Every structure is written in structure tokens, then in C-alpha cells.
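Let's see one such:

===
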Amino acid sequence: MSRQGAREPRVVFGFHAVLARLRADPSSVLEIYLDETRNDARAKDLAAVAERAKVHLMRVPTRRLDGFYGGGRHQGVVARIEIKKTSDSVDEILEGVEHPLLLVLDGVTDPHNLGACLRVANGAGAHAVLAPKDRAVGLTPTVSKVASGAAEMTPYLMVTNLARTLSELKERNIWVVGADERAEKTLYEADLPDSIAWVLGAEGEGMRRLTRESCDLLVRIPMRGEVESLNVSVSAGVCLYESARRRRAPA
């Protein structure tokens, strides 16, 4: 089970994503390109943070920034970052972890959804996000921007055979729990284990049959209003934070 992404520098764009990266791991930021016409408070704040972190910042024309991402919505700032070597397998990531919390995405191919899922996984304290290579998106600049720094901090592994990977998780005594709108019990009614891999499918399609059959337990998120389903990143947040809530020691 290998980690997605090569080790060459990657582009991160947008003020929020660049600032998040600067504050989380300034040594990984190789250089920052800032639109020479931006002299507002956000630009000044970014320049000050970069200076404190001793990261080289260059003022450049807008057209040069456009060249990094084909005219994408970079907001006037682009950073080149170094992708540092991290764990390459689930075994490495979970070494020494007493109660693993994982997010498994089956069929999430939209970069905005993946970025949002990585962000919520990071916020909930998930140890990694897993996805099948044939039904997933890689760590693109859009993913990094939406994830606001989480794409570089939370391990994202793309696996060749998802069913086999889920079987390997079970061998580690990690329960595989799928979120499925057809499940009998809600996640609030179910007895959820501390060591858990939450499995979510793409909005509308859901999990594939083999993935669903690989789950130890299926639960649903109760829907009180008129909408039939939630965006996958919202569903991931509901499930992961319910696990996080149950893990919290009594005050």
C-alpha cells in the first residue's frame, strides 16, 4: 500500500493554503511568488510570515502566476513546496498507534471533494486517508488548495486492491464501518469500536458492492429534512467526529 505522490516539488496556491503550509512546516516551503499588484492586508500578512520563517518571497507579474496553473484561481499567490518523505504504508503509519482512525474513500474523483475530505480528516485526527487507484483523484494543486494544508500533513494512500486492503485492516483488529443510507441503524445507535476505518462512497453512487460486502458494519447518517444525502466530505466529517467524540475521555 503505497503513498500517493512523487517527491519532487509541488505547487500550492491561494492565501489560505500557502499560509497554512508556512505555519505548519515552513522548512518545506521552497519559495513564494506573490502578485506584484497585491498590497492589501492579506499580502502584507503573508510577506511578514514568510520573512519570519526566512522563506524567499518574490513579487512577480500576474501572468507568471497564471503560468503555474493555467490561469487557475491562485488569488495572487503561489508557493513551491518540497514533499518530504513520509510513511509509505499503512503498517508504517499505524506503528505504535493504539486505536487507529482511518477514512476510506471509494469512488471520490472530484478534487474539491477530496481536498475537503482531507481537511476534515486532519481536523478529526484521522491517521490516514485511503482510496483505490482506479477510482480516485491524486494530490493535485486544487486538492491542496481546498485542503488548506491538510493534503501535505495527512497521509493519503492510493491502493491497488481496496477489498484486500480492507481485509488487511481487519487483520489488525480495525473494524471496517461503511456509511450507507440503506443501513438499518444510524451511527448514533450503533456500537462503534475505537479502532475504526470509516468507508464512504461517492455521493449518489455510494460504495461498490464488493466494498460494501467487505464492511463489518453498515450505518447511516439520519436525515431529518428534505434532502436525501450529504456531500461526501460532510458525511466524512459527521462520521469521523462521532468517533472522535466517543473517544474523548469524560471531563
Confidence is low (pLDDT under 50) at residues 1-8. The chain is about 35% helix and 20% strand. The longest strand covers residues 29-35. The CA atoms of residues 78 and 162 lie 34 Å apart.
